[in-house]
Write a structure and sequence with these properties.
Elements (H helix, E strand, L loop, with lengths): L5 E5 L3 H11 L5 E6 L18 E2 L8 H20 L5 E10 L17 E5 L11 E10 L1 H14 L3 E4 L5 H7 L5 E4 L16 E12 L6 E5 L6 E7 L4 E7 L1 E2 L8 H14 L14 E12 L4 E8 L5 E8 L5 H17 L7
Length: 352
Amino acid sequence: MLSFKNVVVLGAGVSGLTTAITLLRNGAKHVTVVGKDIPGDTSSQYASPKAGASIISFASVKDKRLQDIDRITLQEFRRLAIHEPESGVSYCPGVQYFEADDLPGEDSYWVRDLFQDYERLDKSVLPDGVKGGYRFVTFTANVPHYLGYLVKTLESLGGRLERGSFDSLQSAIDQYKDADTFINCTALGSYYLKDVQDHAMYGLRGQTVVVRAPHIKHQLYKDVGFYDQFCTYIIPRGDGTVVLGGTMDRGNNNTEPEPELTKAILKNCYKLHPYLTHHKGPDAFDIVSVNVGFRPGREGGIRLEKETKYRANGDRVTVCHNYGHSSHGYQSSWGSSDKVLQLLKDSHLSKL
């Protein structure tokens, strides 16, 4: 007998919506997603709409858990690209360069078994200053469109999306009296929930520039290592716009775009791929928007853990945590939700 019949998911980002859909597809009768921010909102604390999003992996060769999570996600995105292109997911070829000798460098080559048409680049074809790289085919998602697709899918399965916020898990448990299961997908909110207060969480500021460049069909990346503030990436969204980035800035809480960073992003992306402006220079970009969002970073990685809580009347409820996805929320989305499903199905498991 299923233990998760009536579920409330706290958090309406990509992780919360995906988890809700996974549970509905696997026997949950009633699922309500509750979010302070929901698709269509523009808060900088609501990171999901600000993503690129390219479906590549951030897992190192040693991180078997994240590798497994990413494999599951890639399988679902492959299905979406082939069978549900209306989702906003599509195949996209790409190239990734590395300037670092260590991470992510060699560790990232485990993905050769994951990506289609993987080819490690010969050093003779690498740009100046680049230590390594590979060519591959994976997926990109038109993020605003894809979030809309997730909402439609949720509702088509009988789920609900509503706006709401809580200062603790207990207050949500007390309000939704018929629910037997609660999923915590509150991302950075888990730092502030009174009965969670996960101080391993931290905001990772990202600033990106969306430009109009319908001629760009490839994604490109140049990383300088996991711990640097800057990385250069070019991600087409499939609708004629391209996301240029970017920053991974811990400790910077500025919610407004910083003009000097915008200039640096445009300059770096142009240097990597001058065809962006047809070789007309970094001042020739057709800028659509400049965005700031805070990724939900977490020391120790994603929290996938189950616990039991009680209502005042003694009724027992299950709480499952699924947050801390940092820069890989989309890449981890389906795999993490599958781990939540495993936790709920197996009474002997408390964490994954």
